[in-house]
Amino acid sequence: MILSSPALSPALGPMVLSTASFSGFNVCVLDDPQWLDGMMAVHQKTREALPADQKHFLLPKTPEYFASLLKGEGGAIIGAFSKANDEVVGFCAVVGADHWRDAQAKGFVSCPDSDQRLADACGQTQIDVVQSFCVNPSFQGSDLSRGLLGQALSWCQYKRQPVSLPFLCKEGVLLAQVAGENACALTKFMKAGYAMEATWTQDVDGIKRQKVLMRYMPRKERMSMFERNPQGIKLSTQTAPLLADVLVRYVAAGRRVFLMQGSGRKSAPVFAYVPI
User: Which pLDDT value is given to residue 158?
Assistant: First the structure.
């Protein structure tokens, strides 16, 4: 299997992004069509493991969708595979747009923005969106989520580096859309530094579903916000439905919610909330 760096346009040149190692797995950009069958198997197994009323947590995608990203067309695939046999055990897609309105036009984000708040906040900066996040159910709990989201962030940062000034990173926004009832995904993204930015209802297969827009926030930004508005709520991840419901309610009331501390397995998480 070929493991090469993500492809960019000839004008930008190739980009080097190292492979990360997590608990017996390698995590890196996948850019060879040979990975496709393994990816589709993981995608299918992950959806099959979801109860009928949770299938919308991971929407179906076609092989053509993933194949184009494996070629570096419009984004990338960040994948995790076994060091022992190269079996794909998890992956996520990252798709890019020139700015917020471009991301909306391409269907990467469906969050409404009638008051222009999100468009104004993002400005004309590049938008990247994490999609189709899935881990083989047999390997869940192996810390792969942290590895995949970490490499997705690294890829976006490397992508924005000018070749002439490789230590300067252009501004950009990294987003994800998560089902409001998916407490597991909400927590994983917030442990990776994402904040719950907005919530709305969306028709999915004829049913109104709650959706949440997540935005990556560097720790320095989160700390600064919390210091100005030191408000937090302590919730147990053992009551997953309650966790998701409470957090979504806070966001719906015009607050930005993010994880401040207690991301360890034995400590109850403390979620900070600040006015938007």
Answer: 80
